[in-house]
Design goal:
- The complex is a heterotrimer of chains A (336), B (240) and C (291).
- With 240 residues, chain B is of the alpha/beta class.
- In chain B, 39% of the residues lie in helices and 25% in strands.
- Chain B has a single domain, classed as P-loop containing nucleotide triphosphate hydrolases (Rossmann fold), CATH 3.40.50.300.
- In chain B, strand 9 and strand 10 form a beta hairpin.
- Chain C is mainly α.
- Chain C contains 12 helices and 2 strands.
- Classes of the chains: A mainly alpha (336), B alpha/beta (240), C mainly alpha (291).
- Chains in contact: A-B, A-C.
- The interface between A and C is large, with 46 and 44 residues.
- The complex binds adenosine-5'-diphosphate and magnesium ion.
């Protein structure tokens, strides 16, 4: 199972939009794929290199705005932004890394958070460039979701394949050494500043592209969406820690769980509350249903607290712990 | 002469942790650095490997001034070091710890792996290669420190109290290992609190107290030096 | 000149409240060695308590300090005791797990507030909410002046506690040098619980004092958490005197920024100062005050 898992998953993903033609479900899987790209990027920098960033939105946002601004100011197709977003995000890692990598631990986390917020605020106030809170509207190319699906899938696969390759190379050993002990790493000849930068570059490149894809897909961005601390930077962290930091497939599982939880709440537990409300005709239940549909962040919060407390290595990292807890019960029940 | 420190001074705030220390180390030598607790030995190592910058003075390696080079650069030039307070890469296996180090000189991963396995065998740690570094005993951790830094193929090795906290058998094993490393032609500067170790293996010894040089010479000469005796007696009284 | 003085006064008055927020944060950060990214959210809880007492029972905000502060003291202690302390025993890859945990706590608090009070803006109108008096040509908001002096009162009280009581001295010692304090046998668990309680009740006081002059909505916590860590880093981690300097500095910077650069920049100014301080004055103002 362990060996064939990824291949089966790949197969399912490849045929998914052909089998499931409901565009709502296609949209959900596109969101999962997007979060795989962003979450794995955060994971490379934080989970493997130990630099817990609260600023992933900087690169997502700059990718989105690269596309958006080209369209807005030069009427160039936003698809060109997809090509440019990666290099521009990497260019931005230079000042970002220069500022943040001289700080360690919690200070690093804080300064990346501050940098992320500065970008959001700049995008809001620099109206002549960005249009401010009005945002940017672009024309979407396809009506069907299928083309977007395969593009996101391609980038997500690229993310996983490249991360796997990197982690098994010299760079991977260097990243892990930096995570475990920066002083030891330096004494062993590892240029910690340089390799933190390498890790950040790899992380930012595809996350920038994801941002550019996002505007092409959604047709609209504004600063509060793409530079959002909670909806992008912290969401990326949640994807990582729920799935499992420092594992390749952690962010894949994490992205799936986070999107699922989001939908679970948004639909009021898949219509459960609305159902009860209409069955009983109770006003109270109608109100509850309305609140629940907006309470996905509460779900995220509870999930984070639970995961950090009981599954500190995430679902993938603590998979053994989970199965050990679940399997004995199954034996007793005699189901297996 | 492979290595020299010249008039190095290090202030931490108002405290002179190292105050005008100079010494030269010959190629192939085991050079002992001794002094009571807090006399500045670890600080000297931290200055050499540039974890701290010197307040003044210079450090030369193979006639090159390395005083201002970055820590990783110094390792690339061929100076390896261990830490008195060990710094294992805890959640990596012992083998991966050493592979990460071996990349310092290796061309590719299989090369790094080969160097790592050889070094582990040389240091007699190969039987533990697949366990996580954080689950090693203190003696094994000290050994991993040495193994890791050897895997970066240094020509000069700085050992900081690698025998501290070991039991008598382990101490003897450590002495054997250090001699074996030296036999390969690697120059060693060793900081050690246990007199037995330092007296039996050092060719020459440099003694400091309160960051200042108090004696230098053969183990015999240093052991009989009144200033050294006083410094260590003082320490014993302070401890009793 | 008048504009300048007016701006200066507004900045200092606001800074007094910010100091109160900062002292709570710096104690928590110093003692626990972590950033509390739920600090502003705790303040938000206190603000809603005050709002609820006022709108349901007509209790004056200043009197509800007697409720909001003890409530947050208990909430803070409970968070430390039942969530943060057990977390210390959990082995994880990222040492920042505790910081991430405070993010989770902040999210839960915010959403619970949204659940109860909805996302709408709320405010409490008191007889003094819009009252002002003049000294020369400079106008003073009555509520802000009262808040400023109460904040100073709490600050003085806090100093008395930190300097004169045994628990206070342990907290200060731990905040300034955790390892040394642990070596000296300070009971760290008990100290962290009390500290989180005190830090929370101080920020609760700030929140309650803001109520007559400020509006309230569930997401108000985030910006104040940011202000709190800016103040703390400005002042130097663990330094209570530094937190006062940090609070006043941020208050002034925001005030002058709003007057001379533009209202929209007021949030950004704090963040940019923060980044500059981290880069160029590591250790913050503590370097200069040594307290
Ligand atoms: N990073 C540092 N900051 C401040 N003081 C230090 C630091 N490192 C060492 N010291 C001080 O320098 C002196 C020498 O310490 P050290 O070199 O560790 O001694 P030794 O290794 O000989 O026992 C001690 O007084 C110690 O407290
Ligand atoms: Mg030492």
């Amino acid at each position: 199972m362990k060996k064939h898992g990824p291949i089966i998953l790949l197969f399912i993903l490849l045929i998914f939009p052909l089998v499931v033609q409901n565009s709502y479900y296609q949209h959900l899987v596109i969101m999962v794929l997007m979060w795989v790209i962003i979450g794995s990027g955060w994971n490379l920098l934080a989970g493997y290199t130990g630099q817990v960033s609260f600023g992933e939105a900087v690169f997502f946002g700059i990718g989105a705005y690269t596309s958006g601004l080209l369209f807005k100011h030069f009427a160039i197709s936003p698809w060109w932004g997809v090509l440019l977003a990666g290099p521009i995000a990497v260019l931005l890692t230079l000042p970002f890394g220069w500022i943040s990598f001289r700080l360690r631990g919690a200070y690093f986390a804080l300064v990346t958070l501050a940098l992320g917020e500065v970008f959001r605020l700049v995008a809001i106030v620099w109206e002549s460039l960005t249009g401010g809170m009005v945002g940017i509207l672009v024309d979407t190319t396809f009506v069907s979701k299928v083309p977007y699906y395969y593009i996101f899938l391609f980038i997500a696969l690229l993310r996983i394949a490249s991360t796997t390759a990197v982690i098994n190379s010299k760079w991977g050993y260097y990243f892990l050494s930096i995570r475990e002990d920066q002083d030891a790493a330096e004494s062993l000849g590892i240029n910690t500043v340089k390799y933190k930068m390498v890790s950040l570059n790899l992380s930012a490149f595809l996350t920038g592209i994801a941002g550019a894809l996002y505007i092409n897909y959604m047709g609209f961005i504004d600063p509060e969406v793409v530079f959002s601390l909670h909806d992008i930077s912290i969401m990326a962290i949640l994807v990582g820690i729920v799935g499992g930091v420092g594992t390749i497939y952690g962010p894949v599982v994490g992205a799936f769980i986070m999107v699922a939880v989001h939908e679970f709440f948004r639909t009021g537990f898949f219509g459960l509350f609305k159902g009860i409300a209409s069955l009983t005709g109770s006003d109270f239940m109608t109100t509850v249903a309305k609140y629940v549909s907006e309470a996905h962040v509460l779900g995220f919060g509870v999930l984070v607290i639970f995961v950090i407390m009981f599954l500190p290595n995430g679902v993938v990292g603590d998979w053994k712990k989970i199965t050990a807890k679940l399997l004995p019960k199954r034996d007793k029940g005699g189901i297996s | 002469m492979i290595f020299e420190v010249k008039n190095i001074v290090k202030y931490f705030g108002g405290l002179a942790a190292v105050n005008n220390v100079s010494f030269k180390v010959n190629e192939g030598e085991i050079f002992g650095l001794i002094g009571p607790n807090g006399s500045g030995k670890t600080t000297i190592f931290n200055l050499i490997s540039h974890f701290h910058s010197v307040t003044s003075g210079n450090i030369y390696f193979n006639d090159m001034d390395i005083t201002t080079l970055k820590t990783h650069k110094i390792n690339h030039l061929g100076i390896g070091r261990t830490f008195q307070i060990v710094k294992p890469l805890g959640r990596l296996t012992v083998l991966d710890n050493v592979i990460a180090a071996a990349f310092s000189k290796a061309q590719n991963k299989s090369d790094a792996r080969k160097i790592a396995l050889e070094t582990l065998e040389f240091c007699r740690l190969d039987h533990r290669k697949d366990i996580l570094a954080k689950s090693l005993s203190i003696g094994e951790r000290k050994r991993l420190e040495i193994t890791r830094s050897l895997a970066t193929k240094p020509t000069l090795l700085l050992l900081d109290e690698t025998a501290a906290g070991l039991n008598p058998t382990e101490v003897d094993e450590a002495i054997d290992l250090i001699k074996k490393i030296n036999d390969k032609g690697i120059t060693i500067i060793i900081v050690e609190h246990i007199m037995k170790v330092i007296m039996t293996i050092s060719h020459r010894i440099h003694a400091i107290n309160f960051g200042q040089t108090i004696a230098e010479g053969t183990p015999q000469e240093v052991a009989n030096n009144p200033a050294v005796i006083e410094a260590y007696l003082g320490e014993q009284y302070a401890h009793s | 000149m008048e504009v300048f003085l007016q701006t200066l006064v507004a900045g200092i008055l606001k800074g007094g409240l910010y100091s109160l927020i900062g002292i709570g944060m710096t104690l928590i950060m110093g003692v626990m060695g972590i950033i509390n990214l739920a600090h502003g959210q705790l303040m938000m809880v206190a603000m809603y308590i005050t709002f609820a007492l006022s709108s349901f029972f007509g209790i004056d905000p200043y009197i509800s300090l007697l409720v909001s502060m003890p409530s947050l003291f208990i909430l803070g202690m409970a968070i430390q005791k039942y969530i943060m302390n057990p977390l210390m025993e959990v082995d994880s890859i990222l040492p920042e797990n505790q910081v991430l945990m405070t993010v989770g706590i902040g999210m839960v608090l915010t959403e619970i507030a949204r659940f109860i009070f909805s996302s709408n803006y709320k405010s409490v109108q008191t007889s003094y909410s819009n009252a002002t008096f003049f000294l020369g040509a400079i106008s003073f908001s009555v509520a802000l002046v009262i808040a400023f002096f109460i904040a100073i009162g709490f600050t003085v009280l806090m100093f008395w506690f930190l300097l004169k009581t045994d628990i206070g001295r342990s907290i200060r010692a731990t905040a300034q040098d955790r390892d040394a304090a642990l070596l000296m046998g300070v009971n760290s668990k008990k100290i962290t619980i009390i500290t989180f309680g005190i830090g929370s009740s101080l920020v609760a006081a700030a929140g309650t004092l803001l109520i007559p002059i400020y509006y309230l909505f569930p997401d108000i916590g985030g910006p104040f958490t940011r202000k709190a860590f800016v103040i703390t880093i400005l002042g130097g981690l663990g330094s209570t005197v530094g937190a006062i300097f940090g609070g006043i500095t941020l208050g002034l910077a925001e005030s002058f920024g709003a007057t001379y650069i533009g209202m929209a920049y007021d949030d950004m100014i704090g963040l940019i100062i923060f980044i500059l301080v981290l880069l160029f004055i590591p250790g913050g103002f503590k370097r200069f005050t040594k307290i």
